[in-house]
Amino acid sequence: xxxxxxxxxxxxxxxxxxxxxxxxxxxxxxxxxxxxxxxxxxxxxxxxxxxxxxxxxxxxxxxxxxxxxxxxxxxxxxxxxxxxxxxxxxxxxxxxxxxxxxxxxxxxxxxxxxxxxxxxxxxxxxxxxxxxxxxxxxxxxxxxxxxxxxxxxxxxxxxxxxxxxxxxxxxxxxxxxxxxxxxxxxxxxxxxxxxxxxxxxxxxxxxxxxxxxxxxxxxxxxxxx
Length: 225
Hints:
Elements: E1 6-10, H1 22-35, E2 39-43, H2 45-51, E3 59-62, E4 64-66, E5 72-74, H3 78-87, E6 91-95, H4 107-118, E7 122-125, H5 129-137, E8 142-144, H6 164-173, E9 178-181, H7 187-195, E10 200-203, H8 205-208, H9 210-224
Parallel strand pairs: 1-2, 1-10, 2-3, 3-6, 6-7, 7-8, 8-9, 9-10
Antiparallel strand pairs: 4-5
Helix pairs in contact: 1-2, 2-3
C-alpha cells in the first residue's frame, strides 16, 4: 500500500509520557483517521500489530535504538524491518544517513539490502542532500527530512524551524517523493513544506504530544512576561 500525498501523523509517545502505551497509540491513530490523515507513523512492533487490524490507512513502521554517542537510531537492522512488516507495517522507515551502525553498515547500505533482498517499501530518514541522493540511488521509495538537525553533520541547524531549504534541494535533486518531517508545528509550516515541493508532511509533536504542546504555550507566555 503506497502513500497518498497529504498529512502523515506520527503517533508516538516516549517512556515517561502519560500517553505511553498501546491503548493511547491506538487512539491517536484512530483520531488521525477521523481527521483525514493519509497515513500514520508508528514506533515499535507491538504498536504496529495493535493498530493494524482497525486502521484503513497505511502504517509507516520503525523501531528506535541508539548510536554509541546516544543519538537516536531509527530501525537498526533488516531483522527489525521484517518484524515490522510482519506486524502490518506498509512502509519501513530507516535511518538512511551515512553514519555507521553498530553492525558496521551505513543507512544507505541497509536501504539497499531491504530493497534488493526483501523488496520492502522504504522511507529513508535522512539529514543532508547527499544522504538523500544516496538513499534514492539505493532504491528508497521515499526520502524524508526527519533527521535534519539531529545528527552531528546538521547539529548547527538547531531544532526550532523546519528545514525548508533541505526540502527544496531534495525535490530538485531526487526522483522519488520527498516527505517533509521535523519541527513542523502548525498548519502554516505544513503548507510551506508543500509549497517547497514536499509530497507529504509528517507532523508528530504538534498533534500527539500534549506535554510538548503545553510546554510551548507555557514558554511563550513566560517570554511575553
